[in-house]
Amino acid sequence: MADESLKAEMLAVARAARAASYAPYSNYRVGAALLGEDGRIFGGCNVENAAYPQGVCAEAGALSAMVLAGVRKAKGVLVVGDGQHLITPCGGCRQKLREFAQPEDFWVLAVNESGQQQQWTLEQLFPHSFSPDHLA
Ligand SMILES: O=c1ccn([C@H]2C[C@H](O)[C@@H](CO)O2)c(=O)[nH]1
Ligand SMILES: [Zn+2]
After folding, report:
1. Which fold has domain 4-135?
2. Whole-number Å distance between alpha carbons of 120 and 30
3. Interface predicted TM-score (ipTM)
4. Is 58 helix (H, G, I), strand (E, B) or coil?
5. Nearest ligand, CA of residue 95?
6. pLDDT tens digit string along 54-65?
7. Beta bridge partners of residue 109, listed in sequence order
8. Closest atom, ligand 1, to C-alpha of 25
9. SUPFAM superfamilies under this entry (predicted)?
10. CA pseudo-torsion sign 6, 32, 121, 100
11. Secondary structure (3-state) at 17
């Protein structure tokens, strides 16, 4: 797990990302901060759409930013939802994260408005996953 100063930095990135969220339909803002294997932090926010299913989750935006930067492995993600909720990545995002993660090592940290936290590994949230290994 990340040390406290890295966690604080990631929390700031995730909160800033959430502030940029475009969520006029659900009014549910989400911010994510993804830690690349090189130590860089990539932010993402949810971006909704009038054609509802075309909306994109915060985690997916952070993954796109990481891949665009040329990084192909991630170590963990910090997610901030609205208010007091401690939220975890949706099912689709768990699969998307799995592509660039080692599930036993990859951590998912949920933080709420009050700073309360809960942490899991991706393996705990998404066991027995389908992965690139199956196609090798
Ligand atoms: O982990 C999550 C859960 C939900 N959302 C977004 C999708 C939608 O825009 C809004 C409500 O579901 O929150 C995320 O970005 N990440
Ligand atoms: Zn999602």
Report:
1. Cytidine Deaminase; domain 2 (3.40.140)
2. 18
3. 0.99
4. helix
5. 2
6. 999 999 999 999
7. 78, 119
8. 9
9. Cytidine deaminase-like
10. negative
11. helix
